[in-house]
Amino acid sequence: MDLKQLNAFIAIAELQSFSAAAKTTGLSQPSLSRQLKQLETEIGVVLVDRYHRPLQLTEAGQFFYDKVSAVLTELKTVISMTQRLSMPSTALNIGFVPSVLYGLLPEVIATLKHNNSNSGRSTNSSTDIEVNLKDISSYQQIEALKTGEIDVGFSRFAHQDAWIQQILLRHERYVVALPKAHPLADVNEQRLINLANSRLILYHQTHLPALQPDTVGQNNTFSLAQSVTEPLLHLFAQHNITPLMTTKVSDLQVALGLVAAGEGITLVPASLQTVRTEQISYQRLIHENVTSPIYLHTLKDFIHPKIPDLLNAIYQVYERRGITYRRQQFV
Known about the structure:
Blueprint: H1 3-15, H2 18-25, H3 29-43, E1 48-49, E2 56-57, H4 59-86, E3 92-96, H5 98-101, H6 105-122, E4 131-135, H7 138-147, E5 152-155, E6 164-179, E7 189-190, H8 192-195, E8 199-202, H9 224-227, H10 231-237, E9 245-248, H11 252-260, E10 266-269, E11 280-285, E12 291-299, H12 307-321
Parallel strand pairs: 3-4, 3-5, 7-11, 8-9
Antiparallel strand pairs: 1-2, 5-12, 6-10, 6-11, 6-12
């Protein structure tokens, strides 16, 4: 059994066609068919039902596909990491979610470059750092770290992945964004219960991980907060509140555009309260636990040499801004 056979099988399983799989793998159809036959002969199992169109996997073939595709994905990650270890990049590629860019990220990058420039002058050598920023969702960042597309990512969500390590940088308070004409637009301290009758605009593409039912008690039922995975609705559910009306949009900018147009309200991290201030009123929420976390994550087995410098720049900015934090390092 070799990688060529496994890749041929994966292509056939996913495309359900010998001709399409041949184009993808760059093999001729006879060669592709031969690779599959050799694999089936070696393990002694028929993997593909050739008498259906489109092609279908046998029950054993489906089991084999589920297991071997995960192994091949892990192998590709190992190969990518090995290549990067042998030829480390001098550039630092940073992934971020848009809400972080409106916050302190620009100041962090400026601090990182300033520190790096001063270090170069003190050693009489050029150490200018190249930083590349990429707008990428929280879950997409995990795959991007594995492939080497990014070296480190700023995210709003925790992840459980064997390849990834993660640091919680801080919690950022949410504020409520209301149209200037909204009856509550001038109320300086807002309560979630008072917002429940307004249309809530939802914009997160990433949801919280689904929780298992409580094992405490005989009924084994979900609490309201446990059963809600949409992040904004989850915040309301933590206070046993369900908004009467919601609208789902594709991203944060669209959500704020609808608020500006008077189509509803939303909750955003406090760093965004400088956006569209002519049409939007941002007001503080009294609930101290209504926050949005900011995480920094990278690979467990490959840490870009400039990531410690990035962390130091982050903590410098927090100290200048008087932000409470707990200093951490990747291991």
